[in-house]
């Protein structure tokens, strides 16, 4: 942006619109120090931090946001975190949410999934169906083994 042939390189400034000034301040602090000045504020504005980090390709911010989302991941917020991961194209976070879904399919309601956009809903349904097929297959294998043992007796 500042090195190419864009207007920002001529003016030597970047205009940042529609951003909470405190969020921008925290991101700038991170860029210069590679540390978070106010972790409580950072966590309470996590999606805004991720949006800015993603927009300006600040890998450290994106990575930290992803780690914080993973530590917060539970049955009450998996849907929101999945949507955030999809919105900002954070593939590794999306995969971690899908792993969570796979481990908790019995707690996930089909009505929850209906609020997702069509593509994300299909991906989520695919994960749930895959887990259910594997579970049935494992139960079937276990039953076959038990029957085989009984026949040997």
Question: Can you describe what's shown?
Answer:
The protein is mainly α and 153 residues long. It is 72% helix and 0% strand. The chain has nine helices and no strands. It has helices spanning 7-11, 21-33, 39-44, 46-55, 59-72, 78-87, 91-103, 110-113, 118-152. Helix 2 (21-33) packs across helix 4 and helix 7 crosses helix 9 (118-152). The chain starts with 6 loop residues before the first helix and ends with a helix.
Brief summary of the model shown:
With 153 residues, this protein is mainly α. The protein has nine helices and no strands.
Please give the radius of gyration in angstroms. Answer: 22 Å
Helix-and-strand structural type: mainly alpha
Strand proportion, as a percent range, falls in under 5%
The helix fraction, in percent, is: over 70%
Large-scale geometry: elongated
Low-confidence parts lasting 5 or more residues at pLDDT below 50? none
What's the count of strands?
A: 0
The overall pLDDT, averaged over residues, is 85
> What is the makeup of the main sheet?
none
Distance between the termini: 76 Å
The string of secondary-structure elements, in order, is HHHHHHHHH
Treating each run of at least 4 consecutive H or I residues as one helix, how many helices?
9
